[in-house]
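Please go through the sequence line and token line underneath and see whether the fold suits the sequence. See right below:
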Amino acid sequence: MKKLHFSTTINASREKVWKTMLDPESYKQWVNVSWPGSYYEGGWKKGTKMKFIGGDNQGGTLVTIVDLRQNEFILANHIAVINSDGSEDRESDVAKGWIGSTESYTFTEKDGVTELAIEINTTPEWEKMFTDGWPKALAKLKEICEG
């Protein structure tokens, strides 16, 4: 696995950044800059499973929320790939490349400014998707939060 880091500072409280990042409607606004049509199904709660789906029936990924501390931290572990027909795949080479990868989000506030730090552990074949997408998505999240 390769560890990737992304971060941004946002002139807003971490509560606002948290809410804007995770609310289903505002999530679509910032994530679609990099991954058009993307959305999620499920709830942001420790121990739950969530589906992250790409646009145009591209499929997606299934995660377990390993840790969640309100307005502070989220850790998600990828446990399967979701095929375009909605079925879960844990056996293909693509799935094996996703399973075990993790994403964490840390929200730190100082003097009304929030730093959002993202750490992703992934295989090299997915690195470009993240390095191309996350900077644009974070810039849009910052714009929404500060607007």
Remarks:
- Strands lie at 2-10, 39-41, 49-53, 60-69, 73-82, 88-89, 102-110, 113-122.
- The helical segments are 14-22, 24-31, 93-98, 124-146.
